[in-house]
Amino acid sequence: MPLRQTNRRMRLRRTGIVPSDARVRHYDELEEETQVAVRELAGRPRTAPETDDLDDGDVVKFTDYYQVRAR
Amino acid sequence: MSDSYVIIGDGIAGASAAETLREEAPDAEITVLTDEGESLYNRILIKEYAKGKLPEAPISIHQESWYDDHDVDLRLNTVVVDIDVENDAVHTHEGETFEYDSLLLAIGGTPQQLPVDNADADGIHHFWTFQDARRIKESVEDAERAVIVGAGLLGIDFAAICGAQDVEAKYLMRGDCWWRYALSEEGAEIMHDAMRERGVEPVFDSGVDHFEVDDDGHVTAAIDPNGERHECDFAGVAIGLNFNTELVEDTPLETEDGIVVDEFMRTNLDNVFAAGDITTFNDLVLGERAKNGSWGSAKEQGTIAARNMVEYGSEAFEWVSSYSITHFDFPFLSFGHPTLGDDSVEATTAEGEWRRVALKDGRVVGGVLIGDLSPQSAFKQLMREGRDVSDQTEVLMEPGFSVDDLAATTEQQ
């Protein structure tokens, strides 16, 4: 069950620079439900419930690099 | 006395097995042997490093301290030269012997070299390890013109690397389109356009007859079978893998394009298991033996193998894999076994969006999605369920397709 039992929501912001200390996840590493969220959020001003396999500050490689913000 | 587990290979299959073994057998002795000089790294992301898009640090997954923390004996730069299955022991190049109660072979493959003259010249690269990625990055940064060979999922990484590093490239393909075993020309053309936008020109009905080199032995050109000369100072070759079965050639282990395992990842020997690229496994979803080289599949196989090493029969491998290409401004995803099956259906669903679904006996066994990945979960669900869709394949091509659409169609009939 990759959806977290929290009230936090996440968004993805395109990022041009990947910090050396960032945890970077490729789309193929993610749980199927997280993949759905990434497809929905990438490049769009939307939020979705936080997922188990992404944390605030993580960077996701999809069609671009996206930084996760969870609040 | 605690059990002793030896794992050969520290890729994602071997590493996930080590992690699972530690969880399932807290007191066991676990040894991981790898011929590489670094511990587990993210093989999916090394192409991003070669493109110049990622620094090195995020690519590492397990620091060496991870192995200490989990009481796993990691041996880097250790080449296994012999497996003695009669005495349950493996021997290394330095004369060390590791005895085991249970052995996992996660030994992967090695990139194939083109069987042509000068195929091993300087400037000609194959892409498998992080060390390969470092060499490729260094070489391509100094290059002006490149040639790429291998019209598949690995070859396109070279195209993306050249594009990202502003190197003009000719992508030599044997057929009339990229990944012709899974895509029609219509679908492939979307990929060709994306390559062209990045300065990579597909050349069809081509290939390499031989390479030319300068006095220093550095590649200067690829000559295709039609006699066309393609100048280059960098060449990327990705024509497939040789699976590392030579290690088991003198053992009774069954091989068939890899090491044969059952759905519990066990070989024909009771205490020898295998996981990852090396396996030819009993694919419960497909209903026949299959191979899979995806990261997710290897990770799951490592986990499943470990559980069955502790208690055989505890969990079967039943997995629908997928593999994405994220080099372009649109997504690409293949799932299951898109090159297999006895029938297929395909459609352009919108501008820049295309899909193809491969069917076997009326059931989905794989496919490719370009541009719109939204049906991914639905198609994977159909594969897991083994549902017969032979009389409603056109529904699979509807934009926004979901499994519910299929059920509604069935009820109407």
Automatic annotation (TrEMBL), chain B:
| GO molecular function per UniProt | oxidoreductase activity
Domain (FAD/NAD(P)-binding) spans: 4-289
Q: Which cofactor does it need?
A: FAD
Q: Does the keyword Transport apply?
A: no
| One Pfam family per UniProt | Pyr_redox_2
Q: Answer whether the UniProt record assigns the keyword Oxidoreductase to this protein.
A: no
Q: Which UniProt keywords apply?
A: FAD, Flavoprotein
Q: Which PANTHER family match?
A: NITRITE REDUCTASE [NAD(P)H], PYRIDINE NUCLEOTIDE-DISULFIDE OXIDOREDUCTASE DOMAIN-CONTAINING
Q: What is this protein called?
A: FAD-dependent pyridine nucleotide-disulfide oxidoreductase
